[in-house]
Amino acid sequence: MVVFGVDPGSTRVGLALLDDESRNWLHVQCLELTGLPEHLRYTTIERYVGALCDVFNPEEMAIEKLIWGKNRNNLLQISECRGVVKLVAYKRAIKVFEYFPTEVKSFTTGYGHEEKAGIVRTLQAETGFDLLPLFDDASDAMAIAWIHVLMRNNRAVES
User: Fold this and answer.
1) Phi and psi of 106, rounded to 5°?
2) Labelling 85: which of 29, 43, 75, 122 has CA 20 to 30 A away?
């Protein structure tokens, strides 16, 4: 089964597709949207995520949940990005699972407030994938996909 991990952002979207059976990364990328007007950001996300879904046929998508902070404008843009990504999945009958960043960090490293470098080291040790010099968004997407697979394989996960 292919799992699609997504770290949505207002200017970058981390994307990672993992073959659960072979534990091979099929595609890892940071989609760069900096400088694009809003309508082009969302249509680019929709087309690109849709194309990856059509090529790799993931059955499940793991996406980072939104944590509210100080920058409301940025949070609104991220939530809209999440909506576009989730709609792409729903239109293709892909099950969507959501994880808070602290859950991903905790399940990856055992500490919910781990630094990005700690997550990268753990993923490198667990998967053998050389993560440098990836953007944090891409490694976060990998961590979300990886944790989803581990959780699903260790217990029943309901969407």
Assistant:
1) -65, -45
2) 122
Q: What residues act catalytically?
A: 7, 64, 137
Q: Is residue 159 part of a domain?
A: no
Q: How far, in Å, CA of 107 to CA of 74, rounded?
A: 26
User: 38-56 vs 72-91: helix axis angle to the nearest 10?
Assistant: 30
Helix (H, G, I), strand (E, B) or coil at 19: strand
Query: DSSP label at 14?
Result: E
Kindly report whether the global pTM for this prediction surpasses the value 0.70.
yes
Res. 91: pLDDT tops 90: yes
- List CB contacts of 133: < 8 A, sequence separation 6 or more: none
Closest CA to 57 of 36, 12, 26, 32: 26
